[in-house]
Amino acid sequence: MLVQIVLGVVTLVVLVAAFLASKRWHWGQVLALVAFYFASVGYLILAAQTVSARNALQRQVKQTEERFLRTDAELTAITTGTRNGAIVNRLRQELSLGDDVDELPSLSEIAHELRLKARARGRVWRNGFPAGPIDPATGVVQVEFPEASAAPADGAEAGFNGQDAGAAAAVPTASRLDLEVDSVVYVFESASESRPYYLGEFRVQDVGAESRTASLTALSQLALDSAALQRLQASRGPWAVYEVMPADRSGVLDGLTEEQLKSFLPAASAEEFLRDGTDWQTTDPIDRRVPLDANGEVASLNPEAEGVSYRYVRLRRDYSVILSDLGQRYAELYSLIQSSQVELEQLRSALAGAEEQQEFRQQQIDRLRSDLQGVERDREAILAHVEKLTSQIDRAERLLQATLDENAEMAERLASTRPTLVPVGNGALDIDAL
């Protein structure tokens, strides 16, 4: 501001002097003087602006160099690790470090821990597509995986080639899959048009020597489960092949709305997921209760202390064990159904034989009833004849009795009219005397 005032005053003085000098000097000399003055002032202004711009650029270069050195130090600290408190404090907010963190591990250490955790959870081969239809007789299907070396976009624990997530981006893609022959894997359908679902348990039958293909054999009884066979035949990929069955963990369905959860979960399971992390109610099971202290930490030492609240935690499930038990139960039920069907066929055969025997016996009964009717007619005739004979016998007995009575009476009369017989000699009967 002061420079501008001085320039204004000097410019005024020069103009006044030029006006006064014009009375004695030639007008060309006055014009040259004024032009020289304004050219000098313009040069000074441009020089000042140039110096100011140069100073600003030098300050900017210095700040950029300082920022570069600071960023390089931070990058080196992130890559190789550091115990420098100043660098850790600068990176605390950017890396979301806790207040108790006073050092940074190196990327190699973090990658090593990530590989250990990923190895414990198993490898995953993603974006596989069935190369042909599944054989319903043998349950064999060819799966082809794309050539890729990038890490999974969703931050999964393994890359396309089944490598650990920490090294998937840096390791080039191998020409051959590292699936192990005769190993058991778990296949999921991850199509974008529908929700992911479980396809089944498979055994790695063969792995291509020069191509990224593998032959998988379904271990589930597809011939016995028509729904599973139809679901597998209708799947067009992409498939995710898991070395270890994914474990149930908290937050796996975070971000889904209540309508989305209820659309593909049973009502009881959807309620568990919706209640997970909320306040525990007295009507909830006691084994779903987790005590929390005032800081939100699990109060495992003294859950009955003052200020402890309770949170509802849903039941975690081991789907590998559950599916294995369900498969065993399915096999038992299928065996029971088969045996029941065999018994049913035997019972049907026995029933057919019994019906034939019943028909034969019914025919015998009909014949016997016809014979019985004939026998009853004969019996009636015999009874009538017996009754007739009985009446004849009764009449003959009466006639006989009457005859006997008459003979007795006649004999008595004859006996009364004959003389008395006198014995002769020694009492022998004298025939001549009669």
Please give a structural write-up:
The longest helix has 99 residues, at 319-417. Helix 1 packs antiparallel against helix 2. Helix content is 52%, strand content 11%. With 434 residues, it is of the alpha+beta class. Residues 149-174 have low confidence and may be disordered. A hairpin with a 7-residue loop joins strand 3 (184-189) and strand 4 (197-207). A 6-stranded antiparallel beta barrel has the order 1-2-5-4-3-6. It has a two-stranded antiparallel ribbon with strand order 7-8. The chain has 9 helices and 8 strands.
Structural class: alpha+beta
Let me know the average pLDDT: 77
CA-atom Rg in angstroms: 60 Å
Strand order of the largest sheet: 1-2-5-4-3-6
Q: Care to count the β-strands?
A: 8
Distance between the termini: 214 Å
Q: Which regions are unreliable across 5 or more consecutive residues at pLDDT < 50?
A: 149-174
What form results from the Cα inertia axes?
A: rod-shaped
Instruction: Tell me what portion of residues adopts beta-strand conformation.
Output: 5-15%
Helix fraction? 40-55%
Main beta sheet: 6 strands, antiparallel, barrel
Helix count, per DSSP?
Answer: 9
What is the H/E order? HHHHEEHEEEHEHHEEH
Characteristic terms for this protein:
434 residues; alpha+beta; six-stranded antiparallel barrel; two-stranded antiparallel ribbon; 8 strands; 11% strand; rod-shaped
Outline of the structure:
The protein has 434 residues and is an alpha+beta fold. The protein contains nine helices and eight strands.
